[in-house]
Every structure is written in C-alpha cells, then in structure tokens.
Design brief:
4-stranded antiparallel beta sheet, 5-stranded antiparallel beta sheet, 1% helix, 1 helix, mainly beta
Length: 401
C-alpha cells in the first residue's frame, strides 16, 4: 500500500512541554438555580473574582471552588442580561427591567429611569472601555454612554442610526464602537458611521445577531445563521461547513483556538485559522445540547452557561495545541517519504514525537525517532508534537491517502 504524505504549515515555538489528555469537563449547579436557567452571563474582576448571572435575576460569585448566591439590592427579579468588570470602576450589572447596578469599593449603586438620568430600565448589553466609560445597548431607547457621572443618550434623533432598537454594543474604545440592531450592524469610529445590512453581509434572509466579540483585533459576529468574522474590508462565514446553524456565542482560549456552540448539537472548536476542527458532541462528552454563553476566565479556562447542565467548566490547558510563543530562529523540518509512508525528521534530536488527532487525542508516541510511519492511520490532518531537550516544535502533516 502506497501512502502519500505532505508536511505543511510547519511551526516551531519556544514553549513549555505540553501533554495531550482528555478534556476536563466539570458541571456546577449554582444554589437555588433551577435546571431550566441557562441564559448565564459572566464577568471577572481584576482581583480574580468571577461572577455569573442568569435570566431569573440571580447573581453568583465563585468562591472556594463553588458558586455562592449574592443578592442584588432592591432587585425585582428582572433578568440579568449583561455584566462587565472594569479594574477601577468595579462590576457593572445590566438587567431587563431593573436598570443598571455597579458594585464598587463602597458597595452597590443602582440606576433606574425614575430616579436617575438613565433613559430606560432595559439594558440589553454593557460594554466598558479601558478609559472607564460605559456603553449600554438599551433596546427601543437606543444606546447610552456613562462617564464622569454624566449620561449621554443616542437615538435616530441625534445619531445616524438606521433604526432605533439597539440590542448589542461592543466598545473598543471611547471613539470606536460596534452596535447591532435587528437588521443592521453599525460601526461608529473616528471616520464616521458605517452600516452593514445583516441579510446582505451574511447572504441569508432573517439573520439575527446573538453576540458580538472582539478577538485578536477582529470582530466575530455570532448569529442564528452561524459565525461570521470581519477582517479588513471583508466578511467571512467561519462556519460554512455546518450550514445555517444557530451559533449563540464564540470565545477564544488560546491564540489558535476558537470555541463556539452549535444549538442542539454540542460544542465546536477551530484551530489554526479554520484549518483544524474538533467537535464535542452532546451525547458522548458530557456537553449539553444547548449552550447560551461562553466565557474565558483569567486562567484560560472556558465556562459555559448551558441548558439542563448548569454552569460547565471546560479545562483544555493540557491539550496539545500550538502555543504562539516567540518563534525560534532554527526550524525543524519534516521530510515526507510518499513511497514508504514515513516522515523523516531533522533539525534537532527529538526526545519524543507524538502524533495527535484532530480532537487533541494522542494516537502514538515515538522515543528518539528519526523517522515515523503514518501507515496505520486514515487520510486526514494530524499534528506532530516534537519534544526536544530545550524546545518544542509542531508540524501539521497531511496524509493524502
């Protein structure tokens, strides 16, 4: 049997040794939260305090390896729709009917439309800037900005909004802002305003924005038609292989790993610029079929707000993934032998060579090998993890047949 091999996208990085293991999935059910609660939102303060809130108006803090409930003052049980933490301003909590809360050094503060300049008690999303300003998406009331104790409100009457209802806001700075309305994506920057009609940019009728995320200087838009990315002047459909599937959120745990849920089916990840896919199916991996929100904490762990699964902690820190540390000048090279079905290695004496599958699973390990064989394995992409005495290399290998 002849085997054709092609070594591609060879990457070498200075890194600590990594070991491929099964993903660690831990379920937590917050106190007094029913299984039906699953629209969780998350935030983490500078001191490490992690918070979660849900559509029942319940607020929880992560303490001593468990979730503990904390009551919002004067709360009427309105859904908690968004939270964001700022290192100086504290924790902001937006609700759908109880207005806006902030927990700072002096305790809780509360803004409502009847007792403050807040134009509406409806807060769909909060977004804080590094300078300390806060932006709010406020549904039919448009969007608002709070800074230095002053509120400024924006509607089609005083801003070139294509429609009044604003559901999402993502502030990159005080001068750069992304907004989502029912039918448009809107960018507001120093050069003015830009509108993107949702159906036109996605190519699908009835596209609805579910979440906006800014990852690696790029805008990701999670929608009911899949995941899209804005790069430069172009839009990319990241999940084209899945078709028009509901994608509620997207998160990034490593420089090369995107995670996103597919409603009703489980959780996906994409590695290396859309080249590597893995899938955590709901039936075999302990991941519920429905996930509403993703959040990456300060330690790099992925939290998931799920239906009938509570809060799930997914720890992938022990997976073999490409680590984008500083590249070494000396490159290791893999030489495929299409006749023998082997890969010859040079550039260093590699103490171990590990063959890794698309889901991060270890398939085989060789010790002090100068050549390896992929003959027992089916066609597809594989990752070679090469461990030397003072460096680690990663080589993507494509087995053609």
């Amino acid at each position: 049997m002849k085997t054709s091999l092609l070594a591609t996208a060879m990457l070498v990085f200075a890194s600590l040794p990594l070991t491929a293991q099964t993903l660690e999935i831990t379920h937590y059910q917050p106190p007094n939260a029913p299984d039906s609660a699953w629209q969780y939102v998350f935030a983490q303060e500078k001191d490490g305090r992690l918070w979660a809130g849900n559509e029942l108006g319940q607020l929880f803090q992560w303490r001593n390896l468990e979730w503990e409930e904390e009551a919002l003052p004067n709360a009427g049980g309105a859904p908690i729709t968004s939270m964001v933490a700022h290192e100086e301003k504290g924790l902001w909590v937006g609700t759908l009917g109880d207005g806006l809360y902030r927990k700072g050094a002096q305790g809780w503060e509360h803004w409502q439309s009847g007792t403050s300049a807040l134009p509406s008690d409806t807060v769909w999303q909060c977004s804080a800037t590094p300078a300390g300003g806060l932006w709010l998406a406020q549904g039919a009331a448009g969007f608002s900005h709070f800074s230095g104790g002053t509120w400024t409100h924006f509607t089609p009457a005083n801003a070139p909004l294509p429609e009044a209802h604003v559901e999402h806001v993502l502030a990159l700075s005080e001068e750069r802002l992304w907004l989502a309305t029912p039918h448009y994506l809107v960018y507001w920057g120093t050069d003015g305003w830009e509108w993107y009609e949702l159906d036109a940019y996605s190519g699908f009728e009835g596209t609805q924005v579910l979440q906006l995320r800014w990852l690696d200087e790029q805008l990701y838009v999670a929608t009911n038609k899949g995941l899209f990315r804005h790069r430069g002047e172009t839009w990319e459909w990241c999940t084209e292989a899945l078709g028009e599937e509901v994608t509620p959120d997207v998160a990034k745990t490593r420089a090369t790993t995107l995670w996103f849920p597919e409603e009703g089916y489980g959780l996906h990840s994409i590695w290396d610029e859309m080249e590597w896919w893995s899938y955590l199916g709901a039936s075999t991996n302990g991941v519920p079929r429905f996930t509403h929100t993703l959040f990456v904490d300060a330690t790099g762990r992925l939290w998931m707000g799920t239906k009938e699964g509570g809060l799930i902690l997914l720890n992938d820190r022990q997976l073999v993934l490409v680590n984008t540390a500083e590249a070494l000048e000396e490159a290791a090279i893999a030489y495929p032998n299409p006749t023998a079905g082997t890969v010859h290695l040079s550039g260093a004496l590699w103490e171990t060579v590990t063959l890794v599958g698309r889901a991060g699973e270890v398939l085989q390990t060789w010790v002090n090998a100068e050549a390896i064989s992929l003959e027992p394995y089916p066609a597809g992409k594989y990752l070679l993890h090469l461990q030397g005495r003072d460096k680690v290399a990663y080589v993507v290998v494509l087995k053609v047949n």
